[in-house]
Write a structure and sequence with these properties.
The protein is 65% helix and 5% strand. It has 546 residues and is mainly α. It folds into three domains: 2-341, no CATH class; 348-453, no CATH class; 455-543, no CATH class. β5 (529-535) and β6 (538-543) form a beta hairpin. The termini are far apart.
Length: 546
C-alpha cells in the first residue's frame, strides 16, 4: 500500500507518524499546570458537568476571559478519553501534527518538498514549540489560525497581482481568522490587521484590494469570529461581553497576575527558548533572499509586529510572543536548506552560539539533580533567596541518578554535529538531538520538578475527590481545587467563596491549602484554622467549628 503512495504522500504520512510518536506519549503522566492548563481544562470539565456548552464558566460562574473554541476541543477530547490530563492536552498534540503538515505544504509550494520538510523540522524540533504541542494551553491553535489566515490572504494578493480574479483565498482567510478570534479573542484581529497593513504598505499592494472583497471579508469575519459574543448578547449575557472586552484592554495597559517584565523580555525568550531555530534564523534576518522575497517580507513583518506589540504591553507571559515561532522557523529553514543542499556552512558565530546555548541546556538536568539530591539546604540559601522555593525542596523525592545523562547526550550530539559534521547530516543531528532532549526531559525530569512545585498541593486536593467537603486555596491563586476534586457546585452563589468558607457556617467540612511560608500569618489572621498536615512547600488547614 505504501509503495503505491506518491513521494509527497509518503512524507505526509511520515510527518503524521512522527507527530504521533512525539506529541502524544506521556501527556497524562504530569498534573496540569496552574494557571492556564488547569483553567481551560476546568472550563471544559464544567461544560460536561453542567451540560451547558453555550457559555464558558469557571467555578460555575461565567468566565469572560476566553472564547470557547479551544475549550470545546477539550470537551470533545474528554468525551473520548475521559476527564484527565491526557484529554486536556490531546487537542494540542493534533495541532502539532497539523502545524507540521501545513508548514510542509506551504514550504513545498514556495521552494519544493525538501524545503517543506526542513521547515517542518525547524519548527517541530525547537524547544518551546515542541513543549507547547505537549501542553493544554490555547496558543498553539491560536497561532496556527493567525498564520494560516495570513498565508491565505498572501495567496489572494499573489493571485490578484497575476490577474486571477479569485476571492476564495480571501474568504478562507476571513473564516480562519474568525476561528482565531473564537479561540482567544480580538488580539487575533490586531495581530493580523497590523501585519497586513504594514505588508501592503511596504509591498505597495493596496491597489490589489477591492472594496467589495473587503466588505465580504469583514462580513465573514464578524459572523464567524463574533458569533459567540453575539449569541451571548442575544441570550442576555451582555455583561459577559462587556467584561471580556474590558479584560482585553486591561491586559494591554496593566500587568496581569504579576506578569510584568522588561521590554527585552520577549526577545530574550525567543532567542533562548526557540533553540536551535532562533540561532539559525539570525543569518536569515541579515541577508536578502533572491527568491520568494514577498513571502519573506511577510514573515519579517509578522515577526516584528508580534515582538513590538507584546514588548510594549505591560503583561509579559512566555507564550504571548509564540506567534513569532513561525517567522523564526521559516528563516531558520532557509539557512538550514542552504546548508543541507546548497553547500553553505554554519558561520563561526552561529557555531559558538549553538554550542553555548546548547551546552547551557545540557547542564540543566544534572544541575537540577544536584540541587534536589546533593547540595545542602544551607548552601542553597546562599544562592536561592525565595523562601517558598527552598521550602519546596523535598529530599524524600527519589531521583534515578541518571537524569544528567539526558544533558550529556544533548551536549555530545551537538559538539559532534557542529564541529565534525556538515550539510544534511549536521542539520538532522542538531534537530534530532534537540527533539530527543525535550522528549526525555518531559519523561524523566519534568515530572520530578512538578513534585517539588505544585504536586503536594494537588495531592491534598485529590484526597478529597468526589467527597462531601469544601476545599480551597488560601493566600495564593489556583484552579487546581476545582479540577482535581471534581467539584460539582459552588459553596455559595453570588458571594466571595473564600470569605464564605472562612467566616460562614457551611454544610460540609472545610479545608484550605496554603503555602507553608504563609502558615504562621494565616493562623494568626484566622484562628479558626488549624494545621492538618504539611507536605513540601504546602500545608493543609482545617476549619475547626468551636
Amino acid at each position: 500500500m505504501i509503495k503505491n503512495l506518491t513521494l509527497e504522500n509518503r512524507f505526509r504520512l511520515l510527518i503524521i507518524l512522527l507527530g504521533l510518536c512525539l506529541f502524544l506519549p506521556f501527556n497524562g503522566m504530569i498534573h496540569l499546570f496552574d494557571w492556564d492548563e488547569i483553567n481551560f481544562a476546568e472550563s471544559a470539565r464544567e461544560m460536561i458537568v453542567t451540560g451547558n456548552y453555550n457559555t464558558v464558566s469557571i467555578n460555575f460562574i461565567p468566565f469572560w476571559e476566553k472564547p470557547p473554541l479551544f475549550i470545546w476541543m477539550q470537551v470533545l477530547s474528554m468525551k473520548v478519553f475521559g476527564i484527565n490530563e491526557f484529554a486536556a492536552r490531546f487537542p494540542n498534540a493534533l495541532c502539532g501534527i497539523a502545524t507540521l503538515l501545513i508548514l510542509f505544504e506551504i514550504g513545498k509550494d514556495l521552494k519544493g518538498i525538501k524545503f517543506g520538510l526542513v521547515w517542518a523540522a525547524a519548527y517541530g524540533a525547537s524547544l518551546l514549540p515542541f513543549l507547547y504541542f505537549k501542553s493544554g494551553i490555547i496558543d498553539p491553535w491560536f497561532n496556527l489560525f493567525i498564520f494560516s489566515a495570513l498565508y491565505f490572504v498572501f495567496l489572494y494578493l499573489k493571485q490578484r497581482a497575476l490577474g486571477i480574479p479569485n476571492i476564495k483565498p480571501l474568504l478562507i482567510s476571513a473564516l480562519i481568522l474568525g476561528l482565531a478570534v473564537l479561540t482567544k479573542g480580538p488580539a487575533a484581529i490586531l495581530l493580523y490587521g497590523v501585519t497586513l497593513i504594514l505588508y501592503l504598505t511596504i509591498e505597495r499592494k493596496w491597489h490589489l484590494l477591492k472594496i467589495s472583497h473587503i466588505t465580504l471579508f469583514t462580513l465573514v469575519l464578524v459572523l464567524c469570529g463574533g458569533s459567540y459574543h453575539i449569541y451571548q448578547v442575544l441570550i442576555g449575557n451582555g455583561q459577559l461581553v462587556y467584561d471580556f472586552f474590558k479584560y482585553q484592554l486591561r491586559l494591554m495597559k496593566t500587568e496581569d497576575a504579576g506578569h510584568g517584565g522588561s521590554i527585552f523580555y520577549h526577545p530574550i525568550v525567543l532567542f533562548i527558548g526557540v533553540f536551535p531555530a532562533s540561532l539559525l534564523a539570525i543569518r536569515g534576518f541579515m541577508r536578502t533572499e533572491d527568491e520568494h522575497n514577498d513571502f519573506r517580507r511577510l514573515m519579517l513583518v509578522l515577526f516584528f509586529v508580534v515582538l513590538t506589540i507584546f514588548s510594549l504591553i505591560q503583561t509579559k507571559i512566555v507564550h504571548y510572543s509564540s506567534l513569532c515561532y513561525f517567522p523564526i522557523s521559516y528563516l531558520a529553514a532557509l539557512q538550514a536548506y542552504r546548508i543541507c543542499f546548497d553547500g553553505e556552512r554554519l558561520t563561526k558565530s552561529t557555531k559558538i552560539l549553538l554550542l553555548v546555548i546548547g551546552l547551557f541546556y545540557a547542564i540543566v538536568p544534572g544541575l537540577l539533580q544536584l540541587i534536589a539530591t546533593t547540595i545542602p539546604i544551607d548552601t542553597l540559601k546562599t544562592f536561592i533567596k525565595d523562601d517558598f522555593a527552598l521550602a519546596c525542596i523535598d529530599r524524600s523525592i527519589a531521583w534515578n541518578g541518571g537524569e544528567f545523562l539526558i544533558g550529556i547526550l544533548l551536549g555530545v550530539m551537538l559538539i559532534i554535529s557542529i564541529l565534525r559534521w556538515t550539510a544534511i547530516k549536521q542539520m538532522i543531528a542538531i534537530f534530532a538531538s534537540t527533539m530527543v532532549f525535550v522528549l526525555l526531559l518531559m519523561i524523566f525530569v519534568v515530572p520530578k520538578i512538578e513534585k517539588y512545585s505544585q504536586a503536594p498541593a494537588i495531592a491534598f486536593m485529590e484526597r478529597f475527590k468526589d467527597k462531601p467537603v469544601w476545599i480551597s486555596p488560601l493566600g495564593y491563586y489556583s484552579y487546581a481545587h476545582l479540577f482535581y476534586t471534581n467539584k460539582s457546585k459552588r459553596a455559595c452563589i453570588d458571594c466571595d467563596e473564600e470569605e464564605f468558607l472562612l467566616l460562614k457556617d457551611s454544610d460540609r467540612p472545610v479545608y484550605f491549602v496554603a503555602k507553608s511560608t504563609q502558615e504562621k500569618e494565616l493562623l494568626i489572621q484566622h484562628p479558626q484554622l488549624e494545621v492538618k498536615e504539611r507536605k513540601g512547600g504546602f500545608v493543609l488547614l482545617e476549619k475547626i467549628i468551636k
